[in-house]
Amino acid sequence: MQDAGDSRGQGQSPSGMGALGRSGVILLTYVLAALELTCLFMQFSIMPYLSRRLGLDSVAFGYQQTIFGVLQLLGGPVFGRFADQHGARAAFTLSFLASSALYLLLVAACSPSLPGVALLFASRLPAALMHTLPAAQMVITDLTVPEERPAALGRLGLCFGIGVIVGSLLGGTLSSACGIQCPAIVALVVNLLGAVLSFTCIPTSTKEASAQAQAALPGAPKASVFDLKAITRLLLQPGVLPVFLVKVISGFPSGLFMVMFSIISMDFFQLEAAQSGYLMSFFGVLQMVIQGLVIGRLSSHFSEGDLLRASVLVFSIVGLAMALMANVFHFCLLMPGLVFSLCALNVVTDSMLTKAVSASDTGTMLGLCASVQPLTRTLGPTLGGLLYHSFGVPIFGHVQFAVNFLVLLFLWRQPMPQKKDKVW
């Protein structure tokens, strides 16, 4: 079946690539994504300690996390429409400026002479516009042919892994050596640099002229960035809603487990902070290898439908094993399967969804996809905490197995695309 995105990217590059060219813009996009993710995980590593220093308890810390998740959840689709209407340069620049504002407020919160608690909560507000990763996905989607897209999107896993490992390491090292405000200062400088690079090196638009003309038809009123009807309209296009629901439902149980992982690592695995950090580094390395290298190779041999089914099947198997695990060694044995399922699900569904919509709507679609993880971060602490305290760790495995087994039955009854087809 011919999809909405097949007509774009067939060996043609949008005009306005500048001196960098198509490959140079893609490489810079990977670099910018890695920089932003590194700073993000630097922030995550110091937030619990900064909250404690300011006298906040775990409940108040949970409120911060919820505010961050809700704002990203609400801002994702709107940011995607902004990127579609104003182009890649504006989207990257806006995201880096929003991140700079967050880190500036964090630096101010570290000052004893300023109202630290108020500034700490205020630092969550720019999260609504911090969407560098969806912006990077949009650029890569616009500049790659459909056959190359899963591998190209998968390489963003290398950026994510670098962010997890380097960001967590730098955050702890800098805060211990130079004070808790040091990681925030470094992140502020890096994000200002990212804003400059975005404004000077990223092209105004990475979409083809035909897509830009489609986005702004002559005589038609210019749609608002906040037009919710235009956002929800995408979900009703053929082939979109089933894939999007699979993305949300299949990944939600593992998302609950990851939200509760810091508590599980302390209470169930009996790990110290340093040991938990090593485990997260192992997770980051696995994600770099699997999403950056393995998914791309598999996508050249198997259809996206086959990879989607495989990810859900492995989710079910890992969930069954997770219900039986008794220690951290068992979890380490399960991690490769868990990471494979997470990476395959995210890369394949993002690729399928961007192929199902027109070139002028890829940013909005990726913004919707980017809202899935904040949704888990918003609902996860309450729902995950209730399940954990009521039933213990095995419940996460039982839920993951049951949910993904039902999703697998649904997928098995659906006509899936062959190697050269794109979506259902």
Automatic annotation (TrEMBL):
GO terms for molecular function: transmembrane transporter activity. Pfam families: MFS_1. InterPro entries: MFS, MFS_dom, MFS_trans_sf, Tet-R_TetA/multi-R_MdtG-like. May act as a transporter of organic cations based on a proton efflux antiport mechanism. May play a role in the transport of chloroquine and quinidine-related compounds in kidney. Plays a role in the regulation of lipid metabolism. Its main location: membrane. This is Organic cation transporter-like protein 2. It is found in: Apical cell membrane. Keywords: Cell membrane, Membrane, Transmembrane, Transmembrane helix. GO terms for cellular component: apical plasma membrane; nuclear envelope. It comes from Camelus ferus (Wild bactrian camel). Belongs to the major facilitator (TC 2.A.1) superfamily. Organic cation transporter (TC 2.A.1.19) family. It is a multi-pass membrane protein. The keyword DNA damage does not apply. It comes from the Eukaryota. The chain crosses the membrane at residues 25-46, 66-83, 90-109, 121-140, 152-172, 184-202, 239-264, 276-295, 307-329, 391-412. Residues 22-416 form the Major facilitator superfamily (MFS) profile domain. Gene3D superfamilies: MFS general substrate transporter like domains (1.20.1250.20). The lineage of its organism: Eukaryota, Metazoa, Chordata, Craniata, Vertebrata.
